[in-house]
Amino acid sequence: MGQLAVAMLVGLAFVSFAAAVIYSAVRLKEEVPDEDREYLDPLPKGLRLLWPLLRLVDYHVCQRLPQRLLAGPAESLRLSGLLYLMSPTQFLALCLVSMAGFLGLAIVAFHVIDFDSALALAAAAGFGFIYPRVWLKDSLKKRQKLMVKALPVYLDFLTMGVEAGLNMAGAIGQAVAKGPSCPLKNEFAFVLRDLRSGLTRAEALRRMDERVRIAQVTSFISAVIQAERMGASLGPTFRSQADQRRTERFQLAEKLAMEAPVKLIFPLVAFIFPVTFLVLMFPIAVKFMQSGAF
């Protein structure tokens, strides 16, 4: 009878604790204000599932962090073009949720395989915290690669527009209207918006340079600003920049092709050569064993 009473008390305590946790979570969620994403980028499918939890952590934890901790994520999000997807505090919330998720998975996995190591758990938590930053860095590299690839095409559009008699704003407008869809198209759209709002061409292009920070774009903007100061025609400037960007792409392709044999040395030595020697030597070893040499 005493054991039954103890079991009932333990069960009641567990139910009370679970009810308190659920009640607290509901109250905390109700305090989070609604989010208007009408003018924001749509969320990816995986991130959409985690978004309510991210907003909960963001509102109650990350928005209370000092501003100096948000400068780095804000700059990375801006350069990656993801500042219209999430705020810096939401990105930090993603890091915390990812850390907790990887830590929970590690605890379950280590429990299944009967492995106990505080260092391994700390490593799993650290990897979970760093993983969103790796994803952000990969998004930045992908965006920069797309912009560098599309730059000669847009320079051709600008060249044709200027040589046809359009001014800078008109040429950019035609490039944005008829150019391929890519991050560079959005950046030129921002330049066109800045020009229509009253900024000079130099100021609008400098703002674009600050947003992207790509060497090829910086070179193009510097050449345009220099041509404008010297009173030179923009058509030849755009054409020479397009030719130079294509030459750089061909040179980069040649460089990567020359690096390929060097990069193949380690896989060959570590994986392919041992398997090849094993396949060749196995029949010889079997014959020696059958002949009694071993």
What does the model show?
With 294 residues, the chain is mainly alpha-helical. Among the domains are: 25-33 and 45-116, no CATH class; 143-259, Up-down Bundle (Receptor-associated Protein). Helices cover 80% and strands 0% of the residues. The protein has eleven helices and no strands. It has helices spanning 2-31, 45-60, 71-80, 88-112, 118-163, 168-178, 183-196, 201-212, 215-230, 234-263, 265-290. Helix 5 runs antiparallel to helix 10 (234-263). The radius of gyration is 29 Å and the shape is flat. The N and C termini lie far apart (73 Å). The relative contact order is 0.05.
Short description:
It is built from 11 helices and no strands. With 294 residues, the protein is mainly alpha-helical. Helix 4 (88-112) packs antiparallel against helix 5 and helix 7 runs antiparallel to helix 8.
